[in-house]
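Lab manual, section 2.4: Encoding a predicted structure.

Procedure: take the sequence of the chain (147 residues), apply the prediction step described in section 2.3, and record the output as structure tokens. A sample record is shown.
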Amino acid sequence: MTGTYYKQNRIKKLRAFCNTAKLGSVTKAADKLFASQPTISLQIKALEEEMDVQLFERRGPYLKLTAEGEILYKLAQPLVQGVDQLQETFNAHCGKLSSGELTIAAGESTILYILPEPVRQFSELYPDVRLTLANVTGRDGMAMLRA
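Recorded output:
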């Protein structure tokens, strides 16, 4: 069974699985993915059947990854994250900023006297990028860069 539909269907299953594993709850994953709880449960069940393993131990409302679930999560999480961030990453590589956050750390004088015009121009060019100015000393600025 191959083809585009099948591959798109697999990423949906993996996304449901990864979000459920990360959040520890089918209901929370459903809320995050704007889907119903039964839809997420069915996607996980279909993935378990496809992989021929049980991915979660179910104890009432609590879910715990099985050993196989842990392995799949470690393999699938970077893939799902990469697919979900593809447009943003592509835009960044092409020099396009459509959304996101930018924090500028500078001293008080720089923020007050040098940055107002460049910040205004940046905000006009990239209105969906959230810009934050942090008033820091030299040491604090270096610590922010390392974090």
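Check your result against the sample. The chain has a mean pLDDT of 85.
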